[in-house]
Design brief:
Distance between the termini: 37 Å
Order of helices and strands: EEEHEEEEEEEE
Radius of gyration: 13 Å
Largest sheet: 7 strands, mixed
Strand content: over 45%
Number of helices: 1
Amino acid sequence: QVPLVESGGGLVQAGGSLRLSCAASGRTFSTFTKAWFRQPPGKEREFVARVSPNGETVRVADSVKGRFTVSRDNAKKTIYLQMNSLKPDDTAVYYCAAGSWSSVAKEYNYWGQGTQVTVSS
């Protein structure tokens, strides 16, 4: 697999903020769509946000639109998920992925190990 290393998860109170990072290889960063997915306990993995290989296009799921933002740092070959106004429903394992331009998990070939985000009420 293409190395993808996530970090930044943790415990935060509702209304708080958290920023997740995903460090990718140069090949992954420049070649593939980079995306964030999440998987709440007992639920299927769902799309959160993605950025195109060239960084020109971003897409955010309706469920987090206005609260979450995707960005990237070319020098660090890292993508970020800025999570604001967090809700308990945002509690999930968050995964970084690389693959095709899609909101469907199966279209992504490479995955990080995941990082836990827990939002308390």
